[in-house]
Every structure is written in C-alpha cells, then in structure tokens.
Design goal:
- Two copies of one chain form a homodimer.
- Chain A has four helices and five strands.
- Chain A has 164 residues and is an alpha+beta fold.
- Chain A has a five-stranded antiparallel sheet.
- In chain A, a hairpin with a 6-residue loop joins strand 3 and strand 4.
- The interface between A and B is large, with 36 and 36 residues.
C-alpha cells in the first residue's frame, strides 16, 4: 500500500499499519491543543455527554492512523531500499471520502489500523503519477470499528526503462 | 453553526470560526508526533518533494480547524448563556465527506476557517437530535483554499415546551 510504484498496487491487497495506544494523558493533551470540547478534556463532562465517558477527539483517532501509516511506510521504504529496489515517490492525497467515527475511542483503548486497496487509475493531468484508492479502518482492542474512510493517494508511476 | 438548537440553524447561514497561525516549530512538532513523513519534518526533504517546501501535515491543517471551531463554539455558548438562553447539546459528527487539501499549508501561513450551513434534517433514529450539514473551508492569508470538507453535526432539538 505504500512505497511501491503505482504498477505494483493490486486491488484486494491488504496491509496492517500498526496500532496506537490512547493513553489518558495523550488524549487530554491532544484535545487541549486541537479539540478542547468538554467531553474530550474532562471526565465529568465526558460522563454527562453522549459518549458516556471521556472520549478521544476524532481528529486524534485520525492522527493515530497517520502516525501508524508513516511508521509502516518507513519500514517498507527501508525494506525496499535494502533489497536494492528503486524508491517511488508518494505524493499528497487529493482527498478522503466518507470519513467517519462509528464508535468513540476511550483512554486505555488500543486502535489497530489497516487498509485495503480498492482500485487504482493513472492521473491524466500528471503523467508521472497514479491514484490509488483504499479503504482504511481503525478497530479497537475488541474489534469494534472506530475510524473508517476512503483514501486516495498519489503514487509515482514506474518510469519506462527504469531498473527496479 | 454551533450552540444553537437544531431549529435555529438555517441553510445559507455562514460563520467565521477564527484563524490559526502555523508556526514552523508547531508544524514540525505535530508532524513528528503524528505524520513524520520527510516533507513534513525536514526542510531539504520538503524542497525535494512535490510540495516544493517544508509543508504542514494535512491532519494538522484539519486539527487547526477543530481548534478554531472549539474556541468559536465556546464563545457562542458563553454568549448564549449570558443572555439566559438554554444551551443545546452538540453531539459527535457521524462523518465528513470530501475532505480535501487543495493546496499545501507552509510554515508562516495563517489559515482562516469558516462554514456555511447547507441543509438540515431530523434524525429518525434519535428523536432528540437533528443533523446539520455544512460546508467547511480553510483559506490561507492569500485567500487560497487549503482545506475543504462537508460536515455533518448532531445537534439537539428543542424540547417541546422548553423555554429558551
């Protein structure tokens, strides 16, 4: 799903990115900086809210995914390099669809993130790049989905004649 | 757009949430914690990337929005309370659509966030709540869009007979 050339991606391919433990301190620290709604920073406000407990910011749940994906990508990149393979460039995402948080993340939860390639297509406007569409999920330690979205990722195409 | 009861929202209503300055230190700190791709944490890697410069993580751009929205909501909440009005409960978002980062955010940029109510509907499954659909945008100091998405927000309905 990452650090492969566009041509190497295949629909149905799945990758586990890793997991993130949501420590109470970090949940509150993230929320204080970026999402200081009462139910994200205060136990009592959490209990009185629709969440029933202090809950992590949805943007924290998403950032945890990105952290795992980055680490996973670095690993794949290093592995590829150690095998003497060319490194493709992974570009920015042109956007995500259907970003949802089906259930809250609570302090003490561990969320595991994974992705499945859904489809891919060349980018007409940028011949060097292709688009890879994936379905990304985060599930907690009980297997309950807490984050889902559809990702589009720009991935470099293999240049004709380049030795991989 | 926030801290109003469901019945008070109107399509076309716009709200400016505030702005966030993306200091270089904070850009790198956020990226190190949650999105440590080279072009988000290293000037040289940024120059060599599709961004052309060190660029902020898209999740940081989104988190800046949430920070502004939270502050804006608190202000609206306090204002409402000072006028002796009842406070509705704002619930979690069931999801966002079309999350996109049309242009990068660079250190030194100031991003201003705003939203426009697109539509609303009662929630059949939860009679106490309604859904408010909005279009959210972030623009930099040159008026260039750097973040766009469509938001759905759960907002409490006014209970029949409650004095506002």
């Amino acid at each position: 799903m990452s650090w492969a050339f566009f041509e190497e991606f295949e629909a149905g391919q799945t990758d586990a990115f890793g997991s993130h433990f949501f420590a109470r301190d970090e949940v509150i620290r993230f929320a204080r900086a970026y999402d200081p709604q009462p139910f994200h920073i205060d136990e009592e406000a959490g209990r009185d809210s629709i969440f029933g407990r202090l809950a992590a910011s949805g943007w924290h749940t998403a950032a945890g995914m990105m952290k795992c994906w980055s680490a996973y990508s670095f690993g794949r990149r290093a592995e590829r390099q150690s095998r003497g393979l060319a490194l493709p460039e992974i570009g920015p995402s042109p956007g995500f669809e259907a970003l949802a948080w089906p259930r809250p993340v609570y302090p003490g939860d561990t969320v595991s993130y994974a992705g499945e390639v859904v489809s891919k297509r060349p980018l007409a406007s940028r011949p060097r790049w292709g688009l890879v569409m994936s379905r990304i999920e985060g599930v907690n330690q009980e297997g309950v989905k807490v984050l889902t979205f559809e990702s589009k990722l720009m991935v470099e195409r293999r240049i004709s004649g380049q030795v991989a």
